[in-house]
Design brief:
The chain is of the alpha+beta class and about 260 residues long. It has six helices and 16 strands.
């Protein structure tokens, strides 16, 4: 009888010590939303843009009327425009123009555009702690908001901004180079310039497959792949402003 009870007790203890297999967790398929912008013929413009990406774009683009021969308010603004189903941001200082494509979602009226003061936009984006910001456009009134705050300002007439699409479309690609290589070459060549001597000593120029720069003492030549047909001329004082733009671009850049 004792042996029978011992066997029963042992079996009960072994059964109690067996760990139950955890129940299988339900499988949930997560769909990561893709940023897509819907272009409508007639409707409101409400576009969501990543805050960090927009801040990098504003910092990289050339803007500001300081030093311009003919100062204009448009030099101090960034222009946002729908172009072939995407949202692009432009900036212009007169002799220097830049544009970047932004990942955005929401709806935008076909051909719509608006401007934002670049300095104010940069300030608002730095203050925001959200991942995204939203542009709501109603005529000349533009509202920039996040989860916490909203700021309304008035847009300039986008038509006053020079149209660059036709010029870019008609241009010929003369060279395709890695953005990092071009940035390093420009930065190095600019060290050997001195515009205080004469204007021709204050430029970096591509000619004959080489990137040239010189002052009274040093002549610098930098060879880059695929530069044989390239013609590039940039003032040394503008090289520093071009470097953030190059870092914001992709792995390769086309020189037109």
């Amino acid at each position: 009888v004792v042996e029978k009870h011992i066997k029963a007790l042992t079996a009960a203890m072994e059964e109690a010590l067996v760990e139950e297999e955890p129940a299988a967790k339900p499988t949930v398929e997560v769909q990561i939303p893709q940023r897509r912008i819907a272009v409508v013929e007639d409707g409101a413009t409400c576009v969501t843009v990543g805050r960090d990406a927009l801040l990098r774009a504003v910092k990289a683009l050339p803007w500001g009327s300081r030093g311009a021969l003919l100062p204009s308010p448009i030099y101090d603004h960034c222009l946002f425009r729908e172009h072939e189903g995407t949202l692009e941001v432009y900036a212009w200082t007169g002799p220097v123009f830049g544009s970047l494509r932004l990942k955005a979602s929401g709806t935008i009226q076909k051909g719509a555009g608006w401007t934002a003061p670049a300095a104010l936009l940069q300030k608002l984006l730095r203050r925001s702690t959200d991942d995204d910001v939203v542009f709501e456009v109603d005529g000349p009134k533009v509202r920039l908001r996040d989860e916490v705050a909203a700021t309304t300002f008035e847009s300039l007439d986008p038509a006053t901004f020079r149209g660059w699409e036709d010029a870019v479309a008609a241009a010929t690609v003369t060279a395709t180079v890695p953005a990092s290589d071009l940035a390093a070459a420009l930065k190095y060549a600019a060290l050997f310039t001195d515009e205080k001597i004469r204007p021709n000593y204050g430029v970096v120029e591509a000619r004959g497959g080489l990137l040239w720069a010189a002052d009274r003492r040093v002549l610098t030549r930098i060879r880059l792949p695929s530069f044989s047909e390239c013609s590039l001329r940039i003032e040394a004082e503008r090289v520093a402003k071009s470097l953030p733009m190059l870092s914001a671009l992709g792995s390769e850049v086309d020189i037109l």
